[in-house]
Specification:
The complex is a heterodimer of chains A (702) and B (175). With 702 residues, chain A is mostly helical. Chain A contains 28 helices and six strands. The radius of gyration of chain A is 29 Å and the shape is globular. With 175 residues, chain B is of the alpha+beta class. Chain B is 23% helix and 23% strand. Chain B has three helices and ten strands, in the order H-H-E-E-E-H-E-E-E-E-E-E-E. Chain B is elongated and about 85 Å long. Classes of the chains: A mainly alpha (702), B alpha+beta (175). Chains A and B meet through helix 3, helix 5 and helix 27 of A and helix 1 and helix 2 of B.
Chain lengths: 702, 175
């Protein structure tokens, strides 16, 4: 796209083809011979990374659609079907769910890179605006994708976000009804979101093509912000940029793989493992992390319409950036004042993101208002003003000069970066030191940390513990709680309690399964088979409530992933690196052991029981476990503590049955063999990465 | 850096080839799960467990259709006449030669159990029709006899026999 192609095929067939459709010449001139500035740094590899992420999302998404069912009554269980039964389904779903987050991480870095180096300035305004359009489409796509699992966060996220449009006077309510296709978020909403979630990525792809076209017309920007003048300023795209992009991509995939294989649910919400319930809103309703800054802006404005306009305005203002910042110097590197304000702006966005996840109360709201004001002031006041008062440093004459004159000017960016990092960390700490009402808004203490055999990168389930836990479930919990997503055959699957297929069938045969209708048209009961799922103790929710004083005993299949507690700053950041993700199991043990007498003056409703760790303390379930209630044949102590830990480990397995499946399928496997185990090598192409994943495959927990 | 081509591979050549090989292995490993997911999933496989069919209600000359792994299976209670016709055929007349005795379980001659999809392109043939009183496929005109063997039309082979066994005289287990 940079002038006539110099590509001259020698092969007569290729020559014949190229004269009729010069596609090879187009590729050659755009991605091989294309001149790239020779001073591009690694921040410029994120364009390639984003292309990869788009392709990865489309491929994994198309595959997920092969197994997903877009129906309000079936969507949630079809996701569980993917996680449990489809070959490598867990991997493909986690790749897709975490891929969305990685896509947004990359796009935010890409956007901030553009803002720092002035990539939006003349002649790249259209390129920048196309980028803003891609970002908007990404947000719409991500939002609709998050609705599809039809969990609690899906449902309530869809309700809250679509209700944004109700803020507009007169037309608001008709618009919302139109978006829903009904009088509430329901099956028609899910179906249209599914359709659009499939459509929008291809629209993104189309705009990406325009984005790349516009890029190749204007030429790439570069850290110096001066345009290439002579051949000395550029190098051919291949191999220089391709290899650099590929290396950046492999490093990025390391991060991606870390999340997918080690902390796959870190970026999600526990509540989304609870099926959608139109009658109950989760206590803290928050969007996915990548919308949080805008969510904070929405909530900061104490007026419904004002909040919605501010939120959309926060994105729309980006499109006007080329005209708001009209400084002649392109790169922030040579703008001492701009540089500082840029980092302050980054910090403001991060803190807004953090505030978006906090409850909208007290000091959080005040800070959010100040930062919302600053967010807009950055664009509307600071940037136009800077152009008048700032005295930029001299820019190099050419890119070659910039590369060759590696002088002291290099030091300063490092200093300001360090200052910025300290500022961000300090601001977050300060903010977290403020009202900690979120942590104890129900007065529940943090559950104590337990030691789990399945925790950490090399963890795996303890078979004995799973078998004991299953016994506790069967003899105690099963009288009220169903285990709907677990089939008897799962008991014999690798990585689980380790029963044989015959033992699993024997367990199944102990249960009565309703089947039918038979030839006479009547339902009948028959003994369970390995393929059946655990039957529910009650025929329906109403019967369960009637038998339990109005409380509904939740299904336990996913409970270990559907429960959590707030870790708070800075622990939630450390958790990425320590791979701590046992909040759910820790909470379950705390709950099962947390029964005590209500403190004097606690208004315990009739029929409720006091539990130290239950949010609100008044729990419908009476103390379920007592010492010596279940007989352990292996000599394990028969204490409430031990029962709680065993049944929790069992429930962790039912929630994530592929946790250590790979490890157990080849007991005693050696590293060279397992390195070939294909699923987990995934898209990684670096040797070190291969070894990391291979180690993961070998030990594998979840 | 020298630009003369070396007769031997250079260190750089080795690095390129090694990197390319690792990349190719990584790509192949990444593609594997994406293809493997198309195979039947665990619930589909588990649902394909053997089924039992009670033969007692099936009258002489009647036929029922049962499903196993999503495929129809004909369970036909053949009459004396039909058995005799099936046994008396010269094997040389058959496109896919098989004696009737090879298509039933020994001692259970009245019971013919065959897959119900035509071996031509999978349509379901109609029972008790066609010149041989066996099956006639309405899609493309294949004709099967009372042993489920192909006699006329485009189908290449006999209707296949599913795996089954007699649990008792009046009960079979398919699968």
């Amino acid at each position: 796209m940079s002038g006539p192609s110099t590509f001259q095929p020698q092969n007569p067939v290729l020559k014949w083809f190229e004269r009729r459709l010069p596609i090879m010449g187009l590729v050659h001139s755009s991605f091989v011979a294309y001149p790239t500035p020779r001073n591009l740094n690694y921040w410029w590899t994120f364009g390639g990374i984003l292309s990869f992420m788009l392709a990865a999302q489309i491929v994994t998404g198309i595959i997920l659609v092969m197994h997903y069912t877009p129906h309000a009554t079936l969507a949630f269980s079809s996701i569980e079907h993917i996680m449990r039964d489809v070959n490598y389904g867990w991997l493909i779903r986690y790749l897709h769910a975490n891929g969305a987050s990685m896509f947004f991480i990359a796009v935010y870095i890409h956007i901030f890179r553009g803002m720092y180096y002035g990539s939006y300035k003349e002649p790249r305004e259209v390129l920048w605006i196309l980028g803003v359009i891609i970002y908007l489409l990404m947000m719409a796509t991500g939002f609709m994708g998050y609705v599809l699992p039809w969990g609690q966060m899906s449902f309530w996220g869809a309700t809250v976000i679509t209700n944004l449009f109700s803020a507009f006077p007169l037309i608001g309510d008709p618009i919302v009804t139109f978006l829903w296709g009904g009088y509430s978020v329901d099956n028609p909403t899910l179906n249209r979101f599914f359709s659009l979630h499939y459509l929008l990525p291809f629209m993104i792809l189309g705009v990406v093509v325009l984005h790349v076209w516009a890029l190749h017309v204007a030429g790439q920007g570069n850290p110096a912000g001066v345009e290439p003048k002579t051949e000395k300023d550029t190098v051919p795209f291949t191999p220089y940029a391709t290899i650099k992009d590929a290396f950046g991509m492999v490093c990025f995939m390391l991060v991606y793989a870390w999340f997918v294989f080690y902390t796959p649910n870190y970026l999600g919400h526990a509540d989304n493992y609870i099926p959608a319930n139109p009658g109950v809103t989760p206590a803290h309703i928050v969007p996915e992390w990548y919308y949080l800054p805008f969510y904070a802006i929405l909530r900061a404005i104490p007026n419904k319409l004002g909040g919605v306009l501010a939120m959309f305005g926060a994105i729309a203002v980006l499109a006007f950036l080329p005209w708001l910042d009209n400084a002649k110097t392109r790169s922030g590197r040579y703008r001492p004042l701009f540089k500082q304000f840029f980092w302050i702006f980054v910090a403001v966005c991060l803190i807004l993101g953090w505030l978006g996840a906090k409850p909208a109360e007290g000091a959080y709201v005040i800070v959010a208002r100040i930062l919302t004001f600053y967010y807009f002031a950055h664009f509307i006041i600071i940037l136009p003003l800077l152009n008048r008062i700032e005295k930029p440093r001299p820019v190099p004459n050419s890119i070659a000069d910039d590369v060759l004159a590696k002088t002291g000017s290099r030091r300063q960016p490092m200093v300001s970066t360090a200052i910025a990092v300290v500022a961000v960390a300090g601001a977050l700490l300060l903010a977290s030191a403020q009202p900690s009402s979120a942590a104890d808004d129900h007065g529940a203490p943090q559950p104590p940390r337990q030691k789990w055999s399945f925790a950490g990168p090399f963890g795996k389930f303890d078979r004995g513990q799973l078998q004991r836990g299953f016994k506790v479930y069967k003899e105690v919990c099963a009288s009220c709680h169903s285990l709907h997503y677990v089939a008897f055959r799962n008991l014999a699957e690798p990585g689980g309690p380790g029963y044989s297929a015959a033992q699993a069938s024997a367990v199944a045969a102990e249960y009565k399964i309703q089947d039918g209708p038979n030839d006479a048209g009547e339902m009948f009961e028959r003994p369970g088979r390995a393929a059946d799922r655990f039957p529910s103790p009650f025929p329906n929710e109403q019967a369960a409530r009637a038998a339990n004083g109005g409380a509904f005993p939740p299904d336990l299949s996913l409970i270990a992933k559907a429960r959590t507690y707030e870790r708070g700053f800075p622990w939630f950041i450390f958790d990425i690196f320590t791979q701590f993700q046992e909040q759910g199991p820790d909470y379950l043990v705390a709950l099962l052991t947390g029964y005590e007498d209500a403190p004097a003056g606690f208004p315990l409703p009739a029929g409720s029981n006091y539990n130290k760790y239950f949010p609100g303390h008044a729990i419908g379930m009476p103390k379920p476990l007592n010492a010596d209630q279940v007989t352990y044949e292996d000599g394990t102590p028969q204490t409430v503590e031990q029962y709680s830990k065993d049944v929790t480990a069992f429930l962790m397995w039912t929630a994530e049955p592929h946790g250590s499946a790979q490890a157990d399928r080849h007991p005693g496997l050696h590293l060279p063999d397992s390195a070939v185990e294909p699923a987990l090598l995934h898209q990684e192409e670096g040797l070190g990465l291969g070894a990391l994943i291979a180690a993961r495959v070998w030990f594998n927990s979840r | 850096m020298t630009t003369t081509a070396s007769a031997h591979g250079t260190r750089r050549d080795f690095l390129y080839v090694a990197t390319g090989a690792v990349a190719a292995a990584g790509a192949a490993a990444a593609v594997w799960p994406l293809i493997s997911q198309m195979n039947p999933d665990a619930s589909t496989i588990a649902a394909g467990a053997p089924i039992e069919v009670d033969l007692a209600p099936i009258a002489d000359g009647a036929m029922i259709k049962v499903f196993w792994r999503g495929k129809p299976i004909f369970v036909r209670h053949r009459t004396e006449k039909e058995i005799k016709e099936a046994q008396d055929v010269q094997l040389s007349e058959l496109r896919d030669p098989q004696p009737d005795s090879a298509r039933i379980k020994e001692g259970h001659a009245p019971w013919l159990i065959v897959y119900g999809n035509c071996t031509h392109l999978g349509c379901i043939p109609l029972g008790n029709q066609g010149p041989y009183g066996g099956w006639f496929c309405p899609c493309h005109g294949s004709v099967f006899d009372t042993s489920g063997r192909i006699r006329q039309g485009p189908a290449p082979t006999n209707l296949p026999i599913p795996p089954y066994a007699f649990v008792s005289d009046t009960k079979i287990k398919i699968g």
